[in-house]
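Final report, closing paragraph on structural work. Over the funding period we assembled a curated collection of sequence-structure pairs, and we close with a single example.
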Amino acid sequence: MANARLPTLEMLTDGSYVSVLIDPKITGARRDALIAAARRGADLDEDWARYARLIEYDVPGRFFWPPPVVRSLRGTEAAGRVSSPGLLGA
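Its predicted structure, as stored:
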């Protein structure tokens, strides 16, 4: 999943964003349909796709590391598509 394409569904005020993680075996029109459903805020079958909140950051002196931090959203978090300051467990 190092080369995963993570569509931005919603930018959040703290600089993080909501995306959807899709099983890499799902491609083409089926993947596009899952992204469209996620953009509408639909319930997703977690065997195929999951909402996630991501944040990207830079560490001086490191090239392309670490990757974005990913936190999977479940239940009411996914339903509301986030806005909780403590969502990342900080």
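Residues 10-79 form one domain. The CA atoms of residues 56 and 67 lie 7 Å apart. We thank the funder for supporting this effort.
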